[in-house]
Amino acid sequence: MTQVLQVTAELFPLLKTGGLADVAGALPAALQAQGASLRLLLPGFPAIRHALRHETLVAPLGYPWGEGRAALLRGSLPGFDGIPAYVIEAPELYDRPGNPYHDEGHIPYADNHRRFALLGLAAARLAEGLDPDWRPDVVHAHDWHAGLACAQVAASRQRRRTQARSGFTIHNLAYQGTFGAGAFNELGLPPHFWAVEGVEFYGQVSFMKAGLQFADAITTVSPTYAHEIQGAEQGCGLDGLLRSRSAQLHGILNGVDGAVWNPATDGYLAKTYDADRPEGKAACKAALQKTHGLAQDPTAPLFAIVSRLTEQKGLPLVVDALQDLLDGGGQLIVLGAGDARLDAAFNHAAARHPLQVAHRTGMDERLAHRIFAGADIVLVPSRFEPCGLTQLYGLAYGALPLVHRVGGLADTVVDCTLEDMASRHATGFVFDGFHTDAYRRALRRAFALWQQPEAWAAVRDTGMRQRFGWNDAAKRYIEVYQGLQR
Ligand code: ADP
Ligand code: GLC
Q1: Ligand 1 nearest atom to the CA of residue 372, by list position
Q2: Which residue from 141, 253, 314, 481 could staple onto 381, CB 3.0 to 4.6 Å apart?
Q3: Which of 70, 74, 72 is nearest to 93 (CA)?
Q4: At what angle are helices 207-214 and 147-158 packed, to 10 degrees?
């Protein structure tokens, strides 16, 4: 049985800033159900460190940059029964409140290269047998935070200290973890890794590149994104490297964790419902309108955004065309955190149109569930989107996704064309070309369909019956792991 170490910085439900946490939280159980033996490795951020139970000390871990050392602990995390977790205890690096990557002013921590270098180093030490009870055959690293794990495992293999292989999953190529050249000397990598064929990227150290260069297999979170990142437009400067590795690059679509995202069992909802008995959704919409001061009107289509407020998510299109949404008699609820200008724009709209627009700033897991349940349409007009999970949650909860045809959005939503409606494949609204007019036309299609309640219900029904489970993805990951051991 393949033994796999999952290396990640976030883990739902303990620590989440975005979809990475949802994936890292759902994949372990899915892999375990397919027969993999796996364990987790995480930095000891407060939410993780405090949740660890039945802990034992595995071994101390020296810092590669100088004096001091961390402790590698092993224990269990709530919700991950039978999947032991390794946690790096290093309070001076990780014991900081809030976001794992930056301070309250959104400034990345100056020692991030050290904080995440240690994560990679711990992975390689485990691959070398630091824990006499268990040793991974495959180290599976997620996003730039864990990218150095792949470089460290490669270094350990060169020194003949391990035979383990590594896999690297790109959740978002736009966040690369780049640091000044001086950081290299603090990472504990062999000097010859400072090279174009190593971790050097235009004179800087890139943790993302470390993953892409040294992983034995690379995956990303949708087939379309796997293709897109091999081109200049979405390659973020790494498309050449990705093209050179295309034989080892796999697009594996994320799934939906049905234990967390299921309107039939969701304890946060005013009323549960499913595709066979969708009536409860009306109660969820009424509750959402009431709580947020929107007009209590079942005939007004309720649009929703649950999102990090960043450039990636294409929200300026929504702001630009807000008047169209309002003129059509629509309502909009926004739950988001991030960019101050977007936040101000939605605040302003909510203040001007309190019966039609509601806005909540911050991260709120419970409200997110209530929004997907209460909304009729979820807006995901992203400029780029590796996979995207909110359109999948929208489908599951009967909120038709309106999306830009890009990345995982293109792979998961079928536009309401006449032919796809006739064959009952249509699940939402998809626009081509990232500009306001294209978005506006999709908005008009949504209003037109809303005028035909039976057709709307049929599309919603098709959407709610889609199954984006984790089983298929877990099988694909296991094939990738097995391919590495041949
Ligand atoms: P990304 O990882 O790029 O942010 P995804 O669509 O993959 O995008 O995942 C976003 C995840 O974060 C989803 O689980 C979504 O519900 C959640 N989310 C985003 N913003 C918020 C928020 N303000 N409050 C609660 N959950 C949020
Ligand atoms: C990233 C991407 C998002 C993806 C998520 C989980 O945050 O932006 O598209 O769904 O990772 O893989």
Answers
A1: 16
A2: 314
A3: 70
A4: 50
173 vs 241: CA distance, rounded Å: 12
Binding-site residues, ligand 1, Cβ < 6 A: 18-20, 22, 306-308, 335-337, 363-365, 368, 387-390
Ligand 2 nearest-atom number relative to CA 407:
9
For the CA of 365, the nearest atom of ligand 1: 25
Give the tokens for residue 370: 């209530």
Q: Which ligand is nearest to the CA of 393?
A: 1
Nearest residue (CA) to ligand 1, atom 13: 19
Torsion of CA 87, 92, 94, 98, to 10 degrees: 150
436 alpha carbon – ligand 2 mean position (Å): 23
Q: Which of 218, 254, 404 to mutate to test the pocket of ligand 2 (most atoms within 8 A of CB)?
A: 254
Ligand nearest to the CA of 173: 2
Instruction: Answer yes or no: are the C-beta atoms of 150 and 142 closer than 8 Å.
Output: no
Phi, psi of 272 (to 5 degrees): -85, 160
Dihedral pair phi/psi, residue 270, rounded to 5° = -60, -35
Question: How far does the centroid of ligand 1 lie from the alpha carbon of residue 42, in Å?
Answer: 20
Type of residue numbered 446: A
How many angstroms separate the Cα of 374 from the Cα of each of 81, 355, 468? 33, 16, 21
Q: How far is CA 408 from the centre of its chain?
A: 11
User: In which region does residue 259 sit, left (phi positive, over 0), alpha (psi from -120 to 50) or beta (all else)?
Assistant: alpha
Q: Give the pLDDT confidence of 166-194 residue by residue, as tens digits.
A: 999 999 999 999 999 999 999 999 999 99
Decide: 256 and 471 in contact? Cβ < 8 Å. Answer: no
Query: 36-89 pLDDT, tens per residue?
Result: 999 999 999 999 999 999 999 999 999 999 999 999 999 999 999 999 999 999
What's the whole-model pTM score? 0.98
Residue type, 398: G
pLDDT at 141 over 90: yes
Task: Work out which ligand 1 atom sits closest to the CA atom of 16.
Answer: 12
> What is the residue whose two structure tokens read 């409140």?
97
Give me the half-sphere count of Cα atoms (radius 13 Å) on the Cβ side of residue 349: 25
Question: What pLDDT score does 486 carry?
Answer: 73
